[in-house]
Amino acid sequence: MRGAKLLIGTILAVVAAGCARPPAAYGPVPTPGQLRWQESEMNMFCHFGPNTFTGKEWGDGDESEALFNPTQMDCRQWARVARQTGFSSIVVTAKHHDGFCLWPSKYSSHTVAHSPWKEGEGDVLKELAAACAGEGIGMGVYLSPWDRNAPSYGTPEYNEVFAGMLGEVLSGYGEISEQWFDGANGEGPNGKRQKYDWELFNSTVAKLQPDAVIFSDVGPGCRWVGNESGVAPDSCWATLNTKGFEPGKAPSADVLGHGNRKGKEWIPAEVDVSIRNSWFWQPGEHPKTLAELLRIYYTSVGRNAVLLLNVPPDRRGLIDPEDSLRLVEFRTALDSIFSHNMADGARFETSSDYNHLYRAQNLALAFDGFWAAGKADSEPVINVELPEGRTFNRIVLQEAIAFGQRVENFKIEYLAPDGSWKALTSGSTIGHKRILQIPMVTTSGLRITFHRSLAPPVIKSVALYRDNYQMDGEQPLGE
Ligand code: FUL
Questions:
Q1: pLDDT surpasses 90 at 478
Q2: Whose CA is nearest to atom 1 of ligand 1?
Q3: Which residue minimizes the CA distance to atom 6 of ligand 1?
Q4: Averaged over 197-214, what is the pLDDT?
Q5: Exposed, middle or buried: residue 121 (CB in 10 Å: 0-12, 13-18, 19+)?
Q6: Pocket of ligand 1 (CB under 6 A)
Q7: Rounded to whole angstroms, how far apart are CA atoms 354 and 368?
Q8: Which of 40, 136, 142, 453 has the fewest CB atoms nearer than 10 Å to its CB?
């Protein structure tokens, strides 16, 4: 008797566990490092080096080291500004195209060690690593493969030099969240030709910092979005085909932006853009306006990409107060827009559930779970019943990307006062986060219909917000 009970109990437990099994992943999925990076949403870029002092954007590599002499350098200020205004890490130009190393590399004499700054005893990476750790944010390093100073550039030996430099920055400064490989090369037709050993470079990163996300035109951790104006396209896949390409020999800007539907590798887009016109601090330049920064936020974070916003320290080695003030305004605006979810208290209903664990109510932002559509549901629908009329102009959708990116076409309707469903907006991809900018609408119901998906949608949340900052020229919907 006891044996039979035990058997029945075991069968029931197995059945229950079976029902609660999560959906299988579709296609390529992010690594834990990529997931963490995607969730970081905004990182700060700091272009700093000899160019800061010469006013050039691309140094020639023969600038005197004596130029590098910031008078009040304080990486704690950079890290404080970054953390307080919502950035998850700082990616610093440890070596730009001029070859100048912000750390005392033993592979070069064109470094801080040969500059007057701190009498050659300084190390920007060391100070920045300590400052970022102190503020609880990450640190990433930009290392330009193109080097206009290294005498060995253009010979196989340079690959060893570059890998050696990589080894130094990746083993001497604690955890590195992102390794940035720039694809630019301005050598021109008669210039030096370097055949880069990407296998060596990438494996050096993988060995020394296995969780670091590697940026280049084509990943492998994340890809360039294809422009420097802060815009990912409306339709943005985190997947890409890289066969035949490498950093510096990238697919078209169009493909970099859109990614490849059904692409073979998980290589999401990163949007790098400067808060000023130039990458390096230049006298007489001013930061972008708040409206421009908000627009960039919507066209990067709001389109399944991560924003890498460049905020270049000035000649003193401090973030310019004009820039930090603008960032405070930006943070204040984002907080005021995204701290009141108009879908709080909503009732979610769906046309199907994959199983009882992944049910509709998980779509509420407050739940950590997700909703998965049933396998046989060819056009899954989410109904959002709002407790009373709610007014909003931003809809935020998130896929649970650990299961792959799936949705490729959806429409959203709202419940009009006469009880009919009226078209509100439509979209293509979602990914980690999709923010739809719609005219201000007051309604008690929304209906989201997924027309096409590569696999049944797995949606993490649906949230609604009100952005009063962007209202200029935006018309509310007539009822
Ligand atoms: C480009 C570089 O040439 C620019 O100077 C800057 O560093 C930008 C982020 O990447 O490829």
A1: no
A2: 184
A3: 279
A4: 98
A5: exposed
A6: 57, 182, 184, 272, 279
A7: 17
A8: 136
